[in-house]
Amino acid sequence: xxxxxxxxxxxxxxxxxxxxxxxxxxxxxxxxxxxxxxxxxxxxxxxxxxxxxxxxxxxxxxxxxxxxxxxxxxxxxxxxxxxxxxxxxxxxxxxxxxxxxxxxxxxxxxxxxxxxxxxxxxxxxxxxxxxxxxxxxxxxxxxxxxxxxxxxxxxxxxxxxxxxxxxxxxxxxxxxxxxxxxxxxxxxxxxxxxxxxxxxxxxxxxxxxxxxxxxxxxxxxxxxxxxxxxxxxxxxxxxxxxxxxxxxxxxxxxxxxxxxxxxxxxxxxxxxxxxxxxxxxxxxxxxxxxxxxxxxxxxxxxxxxxxxxxxxxxxxxxxxxxxxxxxxxxxxxxxxxxxxxxxxxxxxxxxxxxxx
Length: 356
Description:
By secondary structure, this protein is α/β, with parallel strands linked by helices. It is built from twelve helices and nine strands. The two termini are 31 Å apart.
């Protein structure tokens, strides 16, 4: 069996590769609330003032270490050289789409139009027409307070949009003192997920903080895949072979879940979590494994029965570990969407969850 250090390295590399990177273009006039929207939806306040690298004269590329997304923020829709701006942006999209590395493609676009304005400008129609030719486009009506038929008008004027959604990024106070809560952000993530390649959904889950259920959904898929692999390992007719095969499966699962929840994927964090999990469940796991593997020494029925029992046990233990970890992370992020839990805190809460 490989040593723990090698297993951790391989698990981190695999989880990072499988998560990948997603790129979303966010376009709109000045004042429509793009920066507020970006900061409300994605981790680490991506749109803070001064962040971003110029891509064209009026488009900047925003990214942060540890967040698997790049935002292309377009400006200049009000400028006299709008046609030049549009042409430059189209070239960026085309060049990206021709690259072999899918992590460089632009996977979706959000066209932001504020509800307060009650009109769709010609420049926005032209931008919609261009974007829809090259990338899946969602039109986002920002600062939503009172529709009064505006959404239907947007749908009529921008028919190539895959969807149109009204959102409000932050809690706001109206003139009469009435408070209105954020809305539509979780649905925006779901709609975006529908139009991007399936292989980019883990990156979307990790990068966003607006939809906790979406993170959980992607994590459940990882657990299901690990459970299937664990069952196959447990059914191996070779005595004691499953223990060596199960370790990388379960460590890989923990790494994958950590990754889609957007947490730092380091050897230190993963080692602490894995050690914690084995410390809680190890005795039971080893006991069952020994009994089952003894049966494998007997030919015929013993081998079949041993494999079947071990497959069920291996799958159940893997699911138990994965679901307990998801539950811990869900509790943490339901309390604070911007939480940065330490490895020690995660390990302690995972122990408590597994003992409970």
